[in-house]
Amino acid sequence: xxxxxxxxxxxxxxxxxxxxxxxxxxxxxxxxxxxxxxxxxxxxxxxxxxxxxxxxxxxxxxxxxxxxxxxxxxxxxxxxxxxxxxxxxxxxx
Length: 93
Hints:
Elements: E1 9-12, E2 19-25, E3 34-38, E4 44-47, E5 52-54, H1 63-74, H2 81-92
Antiparallel strand pairs: 1-2, 1-5, 2-3, 3-4
Helix pairs in contact: 1-2
């Protein structure tokens, strides 16, 4: 079984268009070890190892999605537009 660490990118095993980020991994929970936040969703959910898998191919993310994610990560901090752009560039890889 592949273990995905926090921050790892995964896709849903059945709906492969559903891409998300592992927010938390609980090694002591054999039934639902992955807390995944799906792209475009405001919530995260615990998933089984059978429900998630590594990305089958490199995924492209739109600039808008990267900027939105950067804003979410910077929420509650004193940040500038330049900070959002820098973080979005970092998230893009």
